[in-house]
């Protein structure tokens, strides 16, 4: 030791030695100013001569100061005196985990408490871009206040997150160790560290796994009589299962730790957050996760596990599936469980299981309205956002489960599941689905009126590989999927009516095709060992299919009786299947029940229209006597509700999906949106129903009507672009005039509404990063004004044009005073109502305003529309239909 008791470093008096850290000596000291005990770490004199060591020491100070967490040792001060650098840290009363382990393994409850606290500390460090690189029992302190993570002397910035201060400087971006140098403590090092490769957060997870193994068993995970044999053990050997060393340890913890200790970083927990959630689940589940209760252990009884469909932990269900499969001489039993959609996701796409059955990917939108891709490992309780996937639509997997392809920004892109920048494969205006074959080719559909196209997964120009047989009444092609040989593929040939849809199998090389099925089919998926899966009338069916001969056999049998299936001629169904036999799906939502009520400005109900069934978009007639609405999602139609008589009348009868009715300003016509042509188009019909509807616009993109100008000459519409975002179009109602895009930007624009004088358009846009309401002049005068200040959507004008109403993200109805002459002058947003129920979607209508501005017609759903359906996982699903 270089300091004796009584020595002083600034205001700190040395009381005695505590030990030695990675690069210095640690002393117990007294802060004479605050009269508190502290720990002082001093850079050893001989090490102070090394510039590299000094840099590490200074870096540790910056690192510790940047980490504010209850389970990370707090840094109080730094100093330099007479050539001596020192750190002043929190003095911890307790013992190190290394000292505690000299008395044997920790009890399961005690170990899990420590594990959760250290995992939480690691998560904080990793989120700030820091890797510890020397995680071991000696660097974990057990105190009365909980576990504390110590000694970041070997930590380094990873670039995974912005580090504070100057940690992103050029100096910090250079490694402080030579290439191939091993840094850390051998016993707990990850294989990549031993090989001299860069360490990242997953390296800490390996080390933490070794610590947890030792904590649970009292034995080290890897042993060796020499340094060389120890390294060989870490690189090649797998430790004995914890449960065989310590039978009272929970089996779920065994699995969590073993995943930490995978040799390949890609096979470990990918983040400390994932591991933290897993450890919390193990701790909260108690004996249900396999921790035998004391009485049960003494009686040698084991608690029987009851696995429900909803709310069951994913890891537990997979463990049960593995147990069932392992029963010798028995067919694997079907196992179903589910996990909920995170609350922050407000709309969600089809779940796509990876070919290896380990991950589920889906695109979802939060309150900003922008779609992104989320990934959930079936061995994790956490859902991970995949950065760089803004605007993504319908992701699909590479055959090796390492990449996801998706459509965004009018391009087909791919991105590694482990992260990194998205790479463009080719230009594409499609919002459709795709399939990545074992031959390195990708198939995708364009718009619903296009043929199937193919492109190399490494990039290039796309080429059509199917032809639309217009003579046979085909209007487009959709949902291509490769068969295992990488040459043949399935796709749907679309016709004007859903019941005429044709399933074909095509040869990518010869171009030859043959028909497999005809009927009202959803997206069709090939699933090993030899089935075609497809949805029909909310049921998921399986029919035997020989992928080698491309022949069907037998009858289609139900696998799941409730699957969400869309409407129209290009029908999606929310399911996917892996090569490993895992099926994921989402059930159809329960039939919605909506109550519409007239309320005054205080929220008092003036009149309840009663339960009129499932109501999607609704529109109030100009005389306020009738309501036009669609039947919600699926194959809906338009209905008219007479508010005086309380009577419903069906307005459209086509089997396609008809939505979004809009009254003309004189109340004589209704415009609506339908996909009966294979894509959404706009139709108009007299409100009396005296004559059939007529086609107003079939645009080159999917489009929906939102508002009708007060002069009756224009419709404001939302167009769904190939990037997954939405633009605003103006559609003239006079024959011969052309529709045109008014707002076409990289952002999502929606909810357009004309001012009473038709000189202004209010709309919502995501350009600020969340949906806000803006005001735009019509007539080429330029400029725009932001109306909302803290998020907003669905603007509605007061009849006198002096106010704009809109919905805040919470569903609160807000009002802003508007003055447009001689200059624009906007008032502050003021709260009007707090009880408007929000439905998700680009053209939903939540409320209507009476002509006198004193009443509001609002939606009050009796079932929650914000809670999205859970994702169900079905293991061994073929056993359910074959019994073997």
- Distance N to C terminus: 71 Å
Strand segment count? 62
Strand order of the largest sheet: 1-2-3-4-6-5
Biggest sheet details: 6 strands, antiparallel
Can you give a write-up of this model?
By secondary structure, the protein is of the alpha+beta class. The strands form 15 sheets. The protein has a six-stranded antiparallel β-sheet. Strand 45 (681-686) and strand 46 (694-697) form a beta hairpin. The chain is globular and about 100 Å long.
Please give a handful of descriptors for the protein shown:
globular, alpha+beta, 884 residues
Would you spell out the secondary-structure blueprint of this structure?
Elements: E1 8-9, E2 12-20, E3 24-31, E4 36-43, H1 45-48, H2 51-66, E5 75-81, E6 84-90, E7 94-96, H3 97-100, H4 108-127, E8 130-131, E9 140-143, E10 146-149, E11 156-157, H5 170-173, H6 191-194, H7 201-217, H8 227-236, H9 242-245, H10 251-260, H11 272-285, H12 294-298, H13 314-325, E12 335-339, E13 347-348, E14 352-353, E15 359-365, E16 371-377, E17 384-386, E18 393-397, E19 403-408, E20 411-416, E21 423-427, E22 434-436, E23 441-445, E24 452-456, E25 463-464, E26 474-482, E27 488-495, E28 502-507, E29 513-518, E30 524-527, E31 531-536, E32 539-546, E33 551-552, E34 557-560, E35 575-577, E36 582-586, E37 594-600, E38 605-611, E39 618-620, E40 626-630, E41 638-642, E42 647-650, E43 658-663, E44 669-674, E45 681-686, E46 694-697, E47 702-708, E48 714-720, E49 726-732, E50 740-743, E51 749-754, E52 760-765, E53 772-777, E54 785-786, E55 793-797, E56 803-807, E57 813-819, E58 825-826, E59 830-833, E60 847-849, E61 855-861, E62 871-875, H14 877-882
Antiparallel strand pairs: 1-2, 2-3, 3-4, 4-6, 5-6, 7-9, 8-11, 9-10, 12-62, 13-15, 14-15, 15-16, 16-17, 18-19, 19-20, 20-21, 22-23, 23-24, 24-25, 26-27, 27-28, 28-29, 30-31, 31-32, 32-33, 32-34, 35-36, 36-62, 37-38, 37-61, 39-40, 40-41, 41-42, 43-44, 44-45, 45-46, 47-48, 48-49, 49-50, 51-52, ...
Helix pairs in contact: 4-7, 4-11, 7-10, 10-11
């Amino acid at each position: 030791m270089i300091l004796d008791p009584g020595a002083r470093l600034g205001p700190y008096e040395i009381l005695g030695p505590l030990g030695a850290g990675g690069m210095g000596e640690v002393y117990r000291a007294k802060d004479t100013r605050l009269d508190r005990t502290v720990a002082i770490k001093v850079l050893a004199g001989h090490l102070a001569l090394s510039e590299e060591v000094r840099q590490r020491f200074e870096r540790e100070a910056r690192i510790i100061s940047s980490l504010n967490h209850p389970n990370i040792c707090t840094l109080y001060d730094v100093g330099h005196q007479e050539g001596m650098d020192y750190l002043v840290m929190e003095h911890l009363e307790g013992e190190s985990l290394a000292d505690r382990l000299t008395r044997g393994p920790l009890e399961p409850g005690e170990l899990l408490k420590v594990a959760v606290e250290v995992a939480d500390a690691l998560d904080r460090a990793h989120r700030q871009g820091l890797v510890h690189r020397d995680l071991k029992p000696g660097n974990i302190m057990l105190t009365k206040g909980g576990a504390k993570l110590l000694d970041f002397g070997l930590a380094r910035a990873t670039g995974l997150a912005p580090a504070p201060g100057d940690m992103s400087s050029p100096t910090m971006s250079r490694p402080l160790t030579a290439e191939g140098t091993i840094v850390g403590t051998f016993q707990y090092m990850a294989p990549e560290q031993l090989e001299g490769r860069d360490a990242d957060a997953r390296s800490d997870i390996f080390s933490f796994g070794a610590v947890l193994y030792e904590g649970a068993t009292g034995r080290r995970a890897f042993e060796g009589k020499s340094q060389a044999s120890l390294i060989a053990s870490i690189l090649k050997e797998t430790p004995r299962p914890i449960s065989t060393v310590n039978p009272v340890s929970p089996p779920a913890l065994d699995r969590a730790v073993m995943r930490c200790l995978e040799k390949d970083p890609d096979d470990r927990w990918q983040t400390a957050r994932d591991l933290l959630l897993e450890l919390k689940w193990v701790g909260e589940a108690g004996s249900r996760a396999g921790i035998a209760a004391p009485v049960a252990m003494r009686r040698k009884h084991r608690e029987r596990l009851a696995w429900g469909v909803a709310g069951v932990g994913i890891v537990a269900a997979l463990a049960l599936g593995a147990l069932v499969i392992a029963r010798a001489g028995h067919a694997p039993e079907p196992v179903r469980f589910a996990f909920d959609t995170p609350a922050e996701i407000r709309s969600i796409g089809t779940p796509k299981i990876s070919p290896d059955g380990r991950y589920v990917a889906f695109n979802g939108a939060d309150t900003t309205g922008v779609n992104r891709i989320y990934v959930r490992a079936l061995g994790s309780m956490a859902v991970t956002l995949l950065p760089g996937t803004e605007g993504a639509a319908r992701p699909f997997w590479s055959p090796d489960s390492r990449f996801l392809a998706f459509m965004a920004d009018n391009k087909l892109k791919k991105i590694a599941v482990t992260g990194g920048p998205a790479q463009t494969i080719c230009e594409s205006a499609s919002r459709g689905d795709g399939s990545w074959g074992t031959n390195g080719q990708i198939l995708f559909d364009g718009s619903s009126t296009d043929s199937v196209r193919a492109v190399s997964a490494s990039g290039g120009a796309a080429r059509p590989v199917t032809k639309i047989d217009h003579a046979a009444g085909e209007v487009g092609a959709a949902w291509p999927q490769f068969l295992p040989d990488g040459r043949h593929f399935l796709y749907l040939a679309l016709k004007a009516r859903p019941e005429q849809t044709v399933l074909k199998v095509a040869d990518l090389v010869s171009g030859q095709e043959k028909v497999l099925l005809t009927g009202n089919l959803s997206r069709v998926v090939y699933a090993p060992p030899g089935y075609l899966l497809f949805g029909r009338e909310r049921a998921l069916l399986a029919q035997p299919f020989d992928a080698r001969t491309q022949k069907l056999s037998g009858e289609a049998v139900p696998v799941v009786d409730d699957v969400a299936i869309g409407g129209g001629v290009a029908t999606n169904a929310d399911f996917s299947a892996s090569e490993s036999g895992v099926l994921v799906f989402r059930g159809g939502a329960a039939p919605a029940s909506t109550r519409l009520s007239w309320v005054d400005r205080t929220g008092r109900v003036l009149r309840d229209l009663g339960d009129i069934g499932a109501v999607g978009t609704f529109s109030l007639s100009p005389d306020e006597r009738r309501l036009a609405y669609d039947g919600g999602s699926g194959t809906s139609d338009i209905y008219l509700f007479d508010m005086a008589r309380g009577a419903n009348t069906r307005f459209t009868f086509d089997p396609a999906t008809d939505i979004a009715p809009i009254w003309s300003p004189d109340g004589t016509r209704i415009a609506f949106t339908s996909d009966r042509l294979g894509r959404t188009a706009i139709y108009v019909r007299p409100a009396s129903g005296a004559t059939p509807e007529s086609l107003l616009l079939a645009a080159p993109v999917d489009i929906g009507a939102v508002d009708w100008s007060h002069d009756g000459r224009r419709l404001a519409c939302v167009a769904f672009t190939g990037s997954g975002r939405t633009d605003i179009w103006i559609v003239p109602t006079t024959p011969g005039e052309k529709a045109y895009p008014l707002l076409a930007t990289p952002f999502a624009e929606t909810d357009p509404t004309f001012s009473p004088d038709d000189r202004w358009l209010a709309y919502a846009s995501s350009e600020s990063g969340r949906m806000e309401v803006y005001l735009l002049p019509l007539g080429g005068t330029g400029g725009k004004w932001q109306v909302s200040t803290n998020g907003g959507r669905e603007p509605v004008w007061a009849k006198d044009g002096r106010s704009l109403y809109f919905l805040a993200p919470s569903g609160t109805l807000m009002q802003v005073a508007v003055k447009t002459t001689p200059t624009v002058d906007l008032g502050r947003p003021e709260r009007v109502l707090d009880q408007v129920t929000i439905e998700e979607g680009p053209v939903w209508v939540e409320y209507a305003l009476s002509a006198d501005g004193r009443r509001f017609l609002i939606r009050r759903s009796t079932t929650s529309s914000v809670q999205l359906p859970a994702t169900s996982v079905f293991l061994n699903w073929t056993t359910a239909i074959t019994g073997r």
